[in-house]
Structure formats: C-alpha cells, structure tokens
Specification:
With about 160 residues, this protein is α+β, with helices and mostly antiparallel strands. The chain contains 3 helices and 4 strands; from the N terminus they run ααββββα. It has a 4-stranded antiparallel beta sheet with strand order 1-2-3-4. Helix 1 runs antiparallel to helix 2.
C-alpha cells in the first residue's frame, strides 16, 4: 500500500473515531440533561410529570449541538437541523405554534447567554420555554439550556412574535 493511501485510511479512521466520540459524549450529556424525571420505579418515590415543551426543546438541542460542532456557527434556520423532529419547523406541543428562532438571540435579564429558540406565545402560566445558548470560549463547546422565562422578559426586548 502506498504512503498516500495509508495516510488517507488513517484520516478516515480518525474522522470515524471523532464522530463516534462526539455522538457518545452528546448522548451522555443529553441523557443527564432532562429537567424532570418520569414515573419513579420504587414505591413511595417522588413522581414528576414531564413538561412536553421542555422535552421537545431538549430534542432540538442534540441536532443543534451537532450542527454547531460541524459548522462552528448556528444554523440559518431550524430546517437546517437534521433530526430536529419529523417536521422541518418544530412546534410547541402545547400551543401547536412554530417555535421562534432568532439566530442572534435575545438577552434575558439575569441569564448568561442568548435565547435563540422560544415559544411563539406564553402558554404555561405566563411563561415561555426556550433554548438559551452561551457563547463558547475558545476551545470549548456550545452550551445549551432549556429554560422557562416570564412573558415580560421577552416583551421587554421588543422582539416578541405573535
């Protein structure tokens, strides 16, 4: 085998290992990222309801993180995310309205980062669910958080959507 072919095979294997490592790391991170637990298996253990909106936004975080890892920037639209769901425009499972995506993000008081994806309307006791991203430091990954913000936090930015 010539030297060029050997180098090409090593690079191909390195890419495969990188993809598997990133996928495994994201799987581990996202599995511990749920905000609320499902039904407890032990008698007498606390039981919590899963918030369908937060759960849906967590589903979007995975493809968002993968996109950022591959492109070093946020996507132009949510439709650019592979695996963000069965539809090209993910929607809140409660209001059924398409999530608002703002690539530049909104500043939310008392929160580091920018709110880039959020409910189009306040549908849970005057709050909206959203995904907050923190600007990564050099050599660090993008950090996403699913948060609930009061309606007034989004209205104060002057960028609320109907």
């Amino acid at each position: 085998m010539n030297r060029g072919r050997l180098l090409e095979n090593r690079m191909s294997r390195s890419r495969e290992i990188l993809v598997l490592t990133v996928s495994s790391a994201l799987g581990i991170l996202l599995s511990g990222c749920q905000t609320q637990a499902g039904p407890a298996s032990r008698p007498g253990a606390a039981r919590f309801e899963i918030d369908p909106c937060a759960d849906r936004l967590h589903d979007i975080c995975g493809p968002l993180l993968l996109y950022y890892a591959a492109h070093k920037e946020l996507p132009e639209s949510l439709a650019d995310l592979d695996g963000a769901g069965s539809d090209a425009t993910p929607a809140c499972p409660i209001s059924r309205k398409t999530y608002v995506y703002n690539r530049n993000g909104l500043q939310v008081s008392d929160r580091p980062g920018r709110l880039i994806i959020y409910d189009a309307v306040a549908c849970q006791s005057g709050t909206r669910c959203g995904i907050l991203v923190e600007t990564p430091r050099p050599g660090q990954p993008l950090v996403t958080r699913v948060i609930r913000v009061p309606e007034t936090a989004i209205l104060q930015t002057g960028q609320a959507e109907p």
